[in-house]
Amino acid sequence: MDSATVTAQQGPRLLPPELLVAHLRALAAGSVPRVLAVVAHPDDVEALCGGLIAALGAAGATIGYVLLTSGDKGSPDPDVDPLALAAVREAEQLAAAAVLGVADVTFLRYRDGEVIDDGPTRQAVAAQIRRFRPDLLIAFDPWHAYTFHNDHRQAGFVALASARGLAPLPGPARGADGMLVAETAPGHVTREAWLFLTDRPDVIVDIAPGIELKIAARIAHACQAVDATAVALGIRTRAEDTGAPYAVPLAETFRTIPFPRDESFGARLHAGEW
Question: 106 and 67 in contact (C-beta within 8 Å)?
């Protein structure tokens, strides 16, 4: 199965574990698959695509996260210290990532609620992509109809624009700690993007094998899970509701976007850019 096969089907396609593994191997061309999630806040991954992350980890992928903010406004308490809250949320994110076997986590530390799809933000994400060199990008669907959370929409646009427009060009590469690791690193072409929180899915992932890991990872964000039982029930209910139209007991859905392998007309036509 090549990277265009998933999107070539009519209607959403169920990817059971064996087909997900085959797809990853095709994207990585025989190497260990590398997957990078670019999101807005701590707990976005665990809440919205943690089942996929668990499945990718079980398939042997190397996974990293880039968080645009550290969730410094994620509290109902108007008197909370934003810097102190951000420190708590970063620590909880690292713990949640560890539950899913993810050790490469980058915090770009833009202000919560103020994410903007602009040149500097794209450059910061592109520097991480050049360093991590993913085969698969995971991000918000910025075209989701009536999305009320602007950080989510902006994060989706930033992730896609960085991967498609900037990262393929030579430029800086930065480590997870933000330090420059190469002033002019080779460009990197990501093969495909999977967009979550989408209203136009074309891939359904059965997350039943990893549902307990997803729940445990989400609950690791303790300041966002005061009632852990209710959070666990909410995650399971959402997965049931997502899978119900497709007769999948527990599911997450995604919109897949293949990126062209190069800038030739044929490659761009194959990826649907013409």
Answer: yes
Q: Which residues pair with 240 in a beta bridge?
A: none
Q: Which long-range contacts (CB under 8 A, 24 or more apart) does 197-200 make?
A: 197/48, 197/140, 197/141, 197/144, 197/147, 197/152, 198/141, 198/144, 198/253, 198/254, 198/255, 199/141, 199/144, 199/145, 200/141, 200/143, 200/255
Nearest to residue 72, comparing CAs of 42, 93, 45, 96? Answer: 42
In-domain check, residue 268: no
In a domain, 76, yes or no: yes
In a domain? residue 274? no
Query: Domain of 64?
Result: 5-260
* Residues comprising the chain, all counted: 274
Q: How far apart are CA 234 and CA 231, in angstroms?
A: 5
Asked, for residue 69, whether it belongs to a domain, the answer is yes
pLDDT digits (tens, 9 = 90+) for 233-267: 999 999 999 999 999 999 999 999 999 887 776 77
CA–CA gap between residue 74 and residue 199 (Å, rounded): 25
Could you report the per-residue pLDDT of 191-220, keeping only the tens digit for each? 999 999 999 999 999 999 999 999 999 999
Count of structural domains within the chain: 1
CA–CA–CA angle 54, 9, 146 (5° rounding)? 70
**Number of CB atoms found within 10 A of residue 187's CB:** 15
Nearest to 201 by CA among 3, 6, 12: 12
161-178: burial string, b at 16+ Cβ within 10 Å, e else: bbbbebbbeebbbbebee
**What CATH code is carried by the domain that includes residue 224?**
3.40.50.10320
Task: Find all residues with CB under 8 Å of 132, minimum gap 6, and list them.
Answer: 34, 36, 64, 104
Give the pTM. Answer: 0.93
